[in-house]
Design goal:
about 25% strand; five-stranded antiparallel β-sheet; seven-stranded mixed β-sheet; about 280 residues; Peptidase_M55_sf; Rossmann fold; Peptidase_M55
Length: about 280
């Protein structure tokens, strides 16, 4: 079985502040090490369970965060941006299961470390079919469209709770218990990596047994995004097919999750041009 791993940073053990997640931040170098180590834990767990190949996608920020010289040599990696499929770039029907490592809670969550959905500076809220959608939900829907289930989500306690509510009996690893947006009670990074490896092993074994189902929200998909301000919505509305619902909210009807993600990403890119 081939295994796909998408790795973000905000949900990694030890991370609680934007200084740790931005290239210009004082603690970014250390956070990169933690992120790479958690990716390695998931890779090792996948191979422990008999994976035949592992593809890792760097899914944070500019998507050039993983320390490639320190990454498990058995895995291949996708890094850099712009990526058409963003956090699930490279996903295809050949994969048997997807693992989401270092993920965070969706925008507007309470007690979720650095909660946001793709780009917090412009996106205040994202809903699909009237339901709040986090990055976990958006990315799982793209995987599900291709028949691929998500078998593991790691991150803070709020992220994991959202994943279980969305995906059902998925493997989760709570590497930290969020207290507020900028504070958490953590596992030691080494302990977090140990648990991620074990959970990744379980997830791949369960996927081989058919324990997981792809996440398939009913089509057509009604995307609704509330932007940070009206200027963001003004710019995003340039995408054909966008519907202006109020001063800061746009809607779009997508036939599948792949197009939905592309429209969402186009909205974000256009909206970001208004930032000063």
């Amino acid at each position: 079985m081939q295994v796909y791993i998408s790795v973000d940073m905000e949900g990694v053990a030890g991370v609680v502040h934007v200084d740790q997640t931005r290239r210009t931040g004082h603690d970014y170098a250390q956070a990169r090490k933690w992120m790479t180590a958690e990716a390695n834990a998931a890779i090792a767990g996948a191979f422990d369970a008999g994976a035949t190949a592992v593809l890792v996608n760097d899914s944070h920020g500019d998507m050039r965060n993983l320390l490639l010289d320190e990454l498990d040599v058995r895995a291949e990696v996708i890094s850099g941006s712009l990526k058409p499929q963003a956090m699930v770039q490279g996903i295809s029907p050949e994969f048997g299961v997807a693992l989401f490592v270092g993920y965070h809670a969706g925008a507007r969550s309470r007690a979720g470390i650095l909660d946001h959905t793709y780009y917090g500076a412009v996106v205040a809220r994202c809903r699909v079919g009237g339901r709040d959608f986090s990055e976990t939900a958006l990315n799982a829907a793209v995987c599900g469209m291709l028949g691929i289930p998500v078998g593991l989500v790691t991150g803070d306690s709020t992220t994991c709770a959202q994943a279980r509510e969305l995906l059902g009996d998925v493997e989760t690893v709570e590497v930290k218990d969020a207290i507020t947006r900028y504070a958490a009670r953590h596992l030691a990074p080494a302990k977090a990596r140990e648990r991620i490896r074990e959970a990744a092993t379980r997830a791949v074994r369960r996927a081989r047994q058919g324990d997981f189902k792809p996440f398939l929200p009913q089509a057509p998909l009604e995307l609704e995004v509330e932007f940070a301000n009206s200027a963001c919505a003004d710019a995003a509305e340039l995408v054909p097919g966008s519907r202006r619902q109020d001063g800061v909210t746009l809607g779009y009807t997508a036939p599948d999750a792949g197009l939905l993600l592309r429209v969402f990403r186009a909205w974000i890119l256009l909206a970001s041009t208004t930032l000063t």
